[in-house]
Amino acid sequence: MSAPIPVVQVLVSTRPGGGPQHVLAVALGLRARGWRPIVAAPPDGVMFEQFRAAGVETVVLRADRLGPLTAWRLRRLIREHGARLVHSHGKGAGLHGRVAARLVGVPAVHTFHGLHYERYPAPVRAAYLAMERRLARSTRVIVNVSRAQEAEGLALGLFTARQSRVIPNGVDVARLAARALDREGARAALGLPASATVVGTAARFDEVKQLDVLLRAAAVPRATYTLVLIGTGPEEPRLRRLAGEFGLGARVVFAGERPEAACLFRAFDVFAAPSRKEGMPLAVVEAMALGLPVVASDIPGHRETLSAASEGLVAGTVEAFAVGLAAATADAARRARMGALNRTRARSEFDVREMLKLLEAAYREALGL
Question: Is the pTM of this model over 0.85?
């Protein structure tokens, strides 16, 4: 039997979030299929130790810092571990990973977990897009997490159709269902009353997530539900200030960063996702897999995840979310119907086994196997 093929997975952060959770699922799945995943990432979050606790080889790499030394250190790491392929995730990791792979002479695979550049100043935006186009020349396979993202990237000239593979994020439904707390346990962990009506979300507190839309919707006079925000990020001070200005008081809970946040999703009656833009939102897929109704902004990433026909899609405005959340929280039959459809779709369209099969095929293609 041949020895496992070492593959370096480069991450820009190990704070709780979709990217690190995705890489953990990839690492565990690849290891079970006879590969040898090695995660190279900064120890800036609790996921770093979670990789190690799961038995995944994990090494410190400050991929969150720009500079030639990072790529040089990654080059040395690739050689020391005999890695035959480098797979990078996200902007900074994509730069260091592909430069180092080229220096060593091994193939590079890069995953775009969303294309976010619109809010950059014009010169920065132009420089970023130019850098991605140049890096694509030394990238064997580009993984796009949705068809909508692939179409956008092709239009921007960030890669060619020949390079691109659409591989949606997958969820290990059985593992998630087994690890997720029941409603009572999840509410106890979040300090929520058992009888409360709860709308919740889990996201990095970033402007693109538009979490202020949820606060404004919760402040509508007829809204009586409790809003739970799991996560942290640069927007947190502003969001806390808005919650105070709106007089939400105990009706909004800032739950902080939570490793494996999806294990708490059963505390929610409704999952909300007001993002302005997404690639393939892992938290939404996890909520669907647990049978939660989802109210989400009507953007390409959410349409592709929930299906364009989902009654949970609404305009990304305060008014639309206020109406959509009111309708969902007031109607148990509606929630049950939406949740059942979501569970079926998650299990049929976003199963981790299909994701791993497609990713393994991309690796073999990149390696010429």
Answer: yes
